[in-house]
Amino acid sequence: MDVSYGEEYDAFRAEVQQFLREHWTDEDRRQNPPFKGHTWLVSSVARMDDDATRFRLKAIERGYLYRNVPKRYGGGEQPWDPLKEIIIAEEFQKAQAPTEVLGNGPNLLVPTLLERGSEEQKQRFIRNALLGTEYWCQGYSEPGAGSDLASLRTRGVLDGDHWVVNGQKIWTTLAHLSHWMFCLARTEPDAPKHKGISYLLIDMKTPGITVRPLVQINGESEFSEVFLEDVRVPATNIVGKRGEGWAVSMATLKHERAFMGGTLVGHRMLEGVISLAKSVNLRGRPASKDPVIRNRLAELEARLRAHVYNVYRLLTMGMRRQDPGVTGMVGKLYGSTLAYDVARLAMDIVSDRGVLWQESGPANGIAPYAYMAAFALLIGGGTANIQRNTIAERGLGLPRG
Ligand SMILES: Cc1cc2nc3c(=O)[nH]c(=O)nc-3n(C[C@H](O)[C@H](O)[C@H](O)COP(=O)(O)OP(=O)(O)OC[C@H]3O[C@@H](n4cnc5c(N)ncnc54)[C@H](O)[C@@H]3O)c2cc1C
After folding, report:
1. Around Cβ 146, how many Cβ atoms within 10 Å?
2. Would you state the pLDDT for residue 186?
3. Whose CA is nearest to atom 13 of ligand 1?
4. What's the pLDDT tens digit per position in 179-198?
5. Which of 40, 58, 216, 342 has its CA 20 to 30 A from that of 363?
6. Ligand 1 site, residue 177, Cβ cutoff 6 A
7. Which atom of ligand 1 is nearest to the CA of 145?
8. Is 281 found in the same domain as 214?
9. Counted domains in the chain
10. Would you say 73 and 123 are in contact if contact means Cβ atoms under 8 Å apart?
11. Are residues 270 and 379 in the same domain?
12. Which of 91, 142, 222, 256 is an active site residue?
């Protein structure tokens, strides 16, 4: 098997490196550490300072970022070439340069609008979502509707040229910071449950919206309850047709799972745990010298590589226009369980000092923090159990449990 990239791609890599040397200097790198501590793990919004935005605009112009988004909506618009995408990701990561903004807007809403949105919606929303100048939250889950999302009860009633929305959402990540929410509401109460839902775009400043942050296990508040009381939403803010929101939401979830199943989190966490092992003593020597820890690090690295090669396989299948089938379904489950096991290793490295919080613990308490955050990855975007059901039933054709 030849896993080299070939001459054309080596030249492309050199071009990307040159671009980075010119536009993301050592000084930029020093002033802008790639991520602060460990908060990147639970925050879905990447660094958004002016330097990063200026750099991103140049990278978009060169076609290095948002390659699948047309230029007229603010993207880099390039022919699809997964190898080039991998090279860009590798080089940007090495140079610690800002990559594409992560979050509900660019990762979930934008692909959904590209697939299902009206021309006006694409023009209005995509550019700001890509640059992170407008944040989006995802209003799907409700107190009685999580894994069984289609049971949702938030209602939307058409009144002239507005939907009037009433109901409650929960676990809405970054609702307190978001400008907009893409939201599922039941608009056809008499239709079967999957058929009566619509996908609405709601301005979070609309009167009638109350956001109440929830306190998480780590003491932070990154998600909220959102109460909607007679919230008036322009009738044109519907994506897809009335009652077709389930299909639209599945488009978003597909992207969410791909995003959460990506290899970036695993790479960063593994780098983090290696540096932790070097800096923390275990049984009288740096944990990185401990044979048991080394063994577990090697095993996790092997799993990460398998994950990366599965992503390559997916890209190849995509290029050949083949249905990814079960290969596509394992990514989120594999990535989130890997992240959880990396975090468990971090806890074992700090051992009983893992109960110490923040600066009282080794490496500012990174291990317990990452461990708690890793649970989130096992639940958000559909739980690991639900993923296992999907793989078994839809991927492998096993009978329903
Ligand atoms: C960090 C984080 C961020 C989130 N952000 C958002 C957000 O921005 N927007 C949003 O809308 N939602 C968000 N969620 C909610 C998330 O989508 C739901 O928590 C998830 O879908 C599970 O739903 P639930 O919490 O109601 O649990 P339940 O559906 O009640 O599940 C409880 C347990 O039962 C298991 N279970 C349920 N049904 C089955 C079954 N059929 N077979 C086997 N096991 C089953 C589940 O695996 C789980 O272990 C977020 C969650 C987390 C953790």
Report:
1. 17
2. 98
3. 171
4. 999 999 999 999 999 999 99
5. 216
6. no
7. 26
8. no
9. 3
10. yes
11. yes
12. 256
